């Protein structure tokens, strides 16, 4: 996860060209981990290279191929996010979900659940497993955007935040916006649980164990992300535990 945080922090500081350059550096490091990085290059290349060398020691070829493919999609979306910021482009709710489902990095991250597995692509494309992944992704992005909204609105960087987008497009105040988002989240929980109970069983006992472990890991990922948001100090500082209990947040003043 530290690799994803590095991307989140550093890509927010550059324009479209800078984001594209950093994305290309990271993908080159993933695809060529045994080649030393160039002197003076952005540090993300070496961080990625070392991350991948460690991951390769304990991962299957199936995982490695899938992670590289998903990580490319994720980084391309971060370039798109930088372009939106550079061009001051505001998206509709549907447009935002389409982009944010990738920029949140969940699909690339949850694949780490199968780091020691060999789940065939056909199994991963099963409608119920695909629904689990999609619902988990949306729940994580909703939680992340709600918890990060205060910090982002204060620094004027809430263009890629669901709270700000719903407020603008639906013409709602903050309280009604949170109610709107909460209702959507409740529907996603039900969607996830319905799909969870319909995950297919296969004749291969080992594959069944892997699929069950992966599906359970998706639910744990959603729950773990929620807890992390309060414990990490990233969004609520030292008051995270208090906010988790009271659900009360004082809006920060906007930075001039």
Q: What is the CATH superfamily label of the largest domain?
A: Farnesyl Diphosphate Synthase
Unreliable stretches, pLDDT < 50, 5 or more residues?
Answer: none
Q: Provide a count of the helices.
A: 12
The backbone outline, from C-alpha atoms, is globular
Report the structural category.
mainly alpha
Helix content: over 70%
Q: Would you tell me the overall average pLDDT?
A: 91
Radius of gyration: 19 Å
Largest sheet data: none
Task: Estimate what percentage of residues fall within beta strands.
Answer: under 5%
H-E string:
HHHHHHHHHHHH
Count of individual domains:
2
CATH class of the largest domain: Mainly Alpha
Instruction: Give the N-to-C terminal Cα separation.
Output: 31 Å
CATH architecture of the largest domain, please?
Orthogonal Bundle
The number of strands is 0
CATH fold descriptor of the largest domain = Farnesyl Diphosphate Synthase
């Amino acid at each position: 996860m530290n690799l994803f945080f590095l991307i989140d922090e550093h890509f927010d500081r550059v324009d479209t060209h800078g984001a594209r350059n950093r994305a290309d550096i990271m993908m080159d490091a993933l695809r060529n981990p045994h080649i030393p990085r160039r002197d003076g290059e952005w540090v993300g290349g070496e961080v990625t290279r070392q991350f991948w060398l460690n991951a390769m020691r304990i991962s299957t070829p199936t995982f490695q191929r899938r992670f590289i493919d998903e990580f490319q999609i994720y980084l391309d979306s971060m370039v798109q996010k930088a372009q939106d910021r550079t061009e001051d482009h505001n998206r509709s709710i549907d447009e935002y979900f389409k982009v944010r489902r990738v920029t949140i990095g969940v699909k690339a991250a949850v694949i780490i659940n199968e780091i020691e597995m060999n789940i065939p692509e056909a199994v991963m494309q099963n409608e119920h497993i695909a629904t689990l992944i999609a619902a988990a992704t949306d729940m994580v992005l909703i939680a992340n955007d709600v918890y990060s909204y205060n910090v982002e609105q204060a620094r004027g960087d809430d263009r890629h935040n669901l709270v700000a987008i719903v407020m603008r497009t639906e013409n709602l105040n903050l309280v009604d916006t949170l109610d709107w988002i909460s209702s959507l989240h409740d529907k996603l929980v039900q969607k996830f649980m319905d799909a969870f109970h319909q995950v297919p069983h296969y004749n291969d006992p080992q594959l069944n164990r892997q699929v069950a472990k992966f599906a359970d890991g998706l639910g744990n990922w959603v729950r773990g992300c929620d807890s992390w948001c309060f414990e990490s100090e990233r969004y609520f500082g030292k008051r995270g535990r208090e906010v988790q209990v009271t659900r009360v947040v004082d809006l920060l003043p906007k930075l001039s």
